[in-house]
Design goal:
Distance between the termini: 45 Å
Order of helices and strands: EEEEEEEEEEEEEEEEE
Shape: globular
Strand content: over 45%
Number of strands: 17
Helix content: under 10%
Oligomer: single chain
Amino acid sequence: RKLEVVGVADGLGKTEVIFSCRFFNDKAYVVTFRRTDPLYALDLSDPENPIVTDELKITGFSSYLHPIGDDRLLAIGREADEDTGRVTGFQITLFDVSDLNNTAVLQRYTLEEQWSSSSAENDHMAFRYLPQSNLLLIPLSIRGIYDKRDPFDGFTVYYVNPSGEEKIEPRFSVSMVEDPSFIRYGCWYDAYMPARTLVFRGNATFIKGHSSVSYSLGDTQTQRWYHNFDDGRDKTNGCFS
C-alpha cells in the first residue's frame, strides 16, 4: 500500500537539522538545532491541516523527548554555546506542554563536562523514568581529559519532580568499572553491552559495558552486588571481550 500525504506543516528550522521528534495523542513536538534549539509544538487534531502552534527557543538541543503524563515533556540532550553552537555539556530539561500555544521550561540541569553524553540520547530503551519515585535512571559517559580527570562509564540517578517546583538533582552515580584507567583503552568499547536498567521492589539492576551491578533506590542507596563479566582480565593481557 502506498502512503499518501494528507497534511503538511513545513518551514520548521530552516537551515537547521531535526534532532528529535515525539508524537502522542493529537500533538507533536519537534527539536531542530544549529546554534540554538527551537522546540516546536504542533496541533495534529486536524490531520489535513497540522498547525505549528509555538516555537520555544533555548540553548543547546534535545536528543530524546519523553512524555510524563499529558502536560510534561522530559528531555535529554546537550547544552551548547548560543553563539557558536559548540557543545558544552550534557543536559536534562523539563518542559511544561500543558498549553500548545505556550510551551515553557520548568527546570534544567546541566552537567558542565564537554565530553559527557548518554547512550539514551539515541537508544530509548536505555531511558527509564519512575513516576512513583520521580527518579530518572540514565547511562552516562564522561571521557577523561589527559590528567585533569578520570573518565566515567556508568549510570546516574536523578530526581525529577514533574511539578517543576523542585530543581533537577543527581542522587547518586553508579560506576560500571572498578578501575577507571581501563576506560582509556580503546578496546574497552569493543565488547559493549547496551545500557539497560531493571527495577524490582525498590532495587535497580544496572547493566552496561562489561558489568552489572545492583543498588537500592531507597534512602540508603547502597550497592547490593557487583559482577564483572571480564573478571580476571586486565589491561596487560589483551582487549576485553
